[in-house]
Design goal:
Elements: E1 2-3, H1 13-35, H2 44-63, H3 75-100, H4 107-139, E2 144-150, H5 152-163, E3 170-177, E4 186-187, E5 190-194, H6 199-205, E6 210-214, H7 223-231, E7 235-238, E8 250-256, E9 259-265, E10 268-269, H8 271-306, E11 312-318, E12 324-330, H9 337-341, E13 368-369, E14 375-376, H10 379-385, H11 393-399, E15 403-405, H12 412-416, E16 431-433, H13 447-459, H14 463-478
Helix pairs in contact: 1-2, 1-4, 2-3, 3-4, 8-11
């Protein structure tokens, strides 16, 4: 997963501080309504709740990126994001009270009223602050005048794109059409002020702060024009790709040595998000290893009695960026399962060999097909159906080979059959569970559908998505679907 530079949230520090104030104000107002005109921070129990609210608010801001593109959101989008932010914070606080078993007088009323007040206060304060910023910049004459430099076929689209970002405070001063003389005409209400030969003259006639150069993909990089404009003190932006043309990939401009580079990645995460994901993996790995130790006390005798041999099964798998590692599982198959796999290939439900799954697999301990065609299950099926065989993988999570949530790690023979686009699945650490596993893996036999789900997970990754998948995994396991 590509690591994006941190710090982009600093440009929205005013919104962050405003949100913190609104939530704390809602908390104190709710306390006053229920408990009287006193400060909740004067009460020891409510003081601890207030600190949890503050920490939860900060965590949600950064883990869910709730202030990303805040200046570009409309009324409905802003309300939806405020409500989502509020629900997550509220859930964290309720979970805290439930876990600590605190019996705080009036706490339920205060917390629920706080949530209602915060939605109203947070939403309208954001709208007010955006409107105030807009008026302040306009009154101070701080709107940035922008010259669009493009071709005729792209001009209308570029103007519309800029207008969709109205709160970015650009005033379009004019358009320079390079491939045709349209001077004196208007495109989307904006005058065409120049052609290719007199762009710099147009800038001299009517000063502009910034220029946005957007040329067709097949066109050469406008190095000379960009240098001329920049040399005149104009900030020059050169459009490389539209977001829609990148196929859902993430793109960032950065530095590599002495070069300015456009970095393209299937996914991106800030160092903070990377840290939080790894911290969650370590915490989950420790808890999972403890559960594994307890399960070993019961499963070890059952496995040995049904099929003498090792308790654990290890196999070489392919992990992130093609790195090989040994995966650990409770053994649910007979020791010669790998040798018998070749003989069963013709029964594989995945005919392309990119995955292997057989109905009534005779390699599973105690599993066999009866004369009437029905399948008799054994201890191996019980272990697999309840995903108990996966628990030793928590050791892989602690070692850093795997994550709690990710993509399924392929075997070496599966990896060798991969086509180039299949390898995108391993742009992240493989996981014990993932989006494919909780989407009904037993019903999905098309490997391309598996790749699509894994790619969707990678491109849309967030800590919130990981948490949703973990919750769904618990539900699927308890339904005995063998989801992991």
């Amino acid at each position: 997963m590509y690591r994006k530079k941190a710090g982009g949230w600093l440009k929205h520090l005013d919104f962050i501080l405003l949100d913190l104030l609104c939530l704390q104000a809602a908390f104190m107002l709710a306390y006053t309504v229920r408990m009287g005109p006193n400060s909740p921070y004067a009460d020891r129990e409510y003081r601890s709740i207030g600190i949890v609210i503050l920490l939860a608010d900060v965590a949600v801001m950064f883990l869910l990126n709730t202030f990303r593109d805040v200046l570009k959101r409309g009324y409905y989008q802003e309300f939806a994001m405020t409500l989502r932010h509020d629900c997550v914070v509220e859930g964290i606080v309720v979970f805290y009270l439930f876990t600590t078993e605190k019996e705080v007088p009036g706490a339920r009323f205060v917390i629920y009223l706080m949530a209602l007040l915060y939605v109203c206060m947070g939403y309208f304060s954001r709208l007010f602050w955006k409107a105030w910023l807009q008026k302040r910049l306009a009154a101070a004459g701080e709107e940035r005048s922008l010259l669009i430099v493009t071709h005729e076929k792209l001009a209308a689209e570029v103007v519309q794109d800029i207008r969709e970002h109205y709160l970015e405070q650009y005033r379009i001063a004019g358009i320079a059409v390079l491939d045709r003389d349209l001077r004196g005409r208007e495109i989307e209400g904006i005058p065409v002020v120049a052609v290719a030969s007199d762009v710099t003259e147009a800038v001299c006639r009517s000063w502009v702060d910034e220029a946005f150069i957007v040329l067709p993909r097949e066109g050469a990089y406008p190095e000379e024009l960009a240098s001329q404009l920049a040399g005149m003190g104009v900030v020059v932006h050169v459009g490389v790709y539209k977001a829609q043309e990148s196929g859902g990939l993430r793109q960032f401009v950065g530095q590599l040595g002495d070069y300015t580079v456009l970095t393209t990645s299937i996914s991106a995460a800030t160092p903070l998000q990377q840290f939080c994901k790894r911290a969650m993996d370590i915490a989950g790995g420790i808890a999972g290893c403890l559960i594994t130790a307890v399960l070993t006390l019961f499963l070890a005798p059952a496995i040995c009695i049904a099929s003498p041999g090792p308790i654990f099964f290890t196999q070489e798998r392919v992990g992130r960026n093609g790195k090989k590692f040994r995966i650990y599982k409770f053994r649910s198959m007979y020791p010669d399962a790998e040798e018998r796999k070749k003989a069963l290939m013709e029964r594989n439900r995945h005919g392309d060999g990119l995955m292997f799954k057989v109905e009534g697999d005779p390699r599973i301990i105690g599993c066999r097909i009866l004369e009437d065609g029905s399948v008799k299950k054994g201890i191996g099926n019980f272990i697999r159906d309840h995903s108990l065989d996966e628990f030793p993988q928590f050791l892989n999570v602690l070692k850093g080979d795997m994550s709690l949530v990710g993509t399924r790690p392929p075997t070496l023979d599966e990896w060798e059959r991969y086509e180039p686009h299949h390898r995108a699945r391993l742009a992240v650490r493989p996981g014990i569970t993932g989006l494919w596993q909780v989407s009904g893996r037993s019903k999905i036999t098309d490997f391309e559908e598996v790749v699509k789900l894994d790619t969707k997970y990678i491109t849309e990754w967030s800590m919130a998505l990981d948490l949703r998948i973990l919750v769904r995994t618990v539900g699927v396991v308890f339904r005995r679907d063998g989801a992991m």
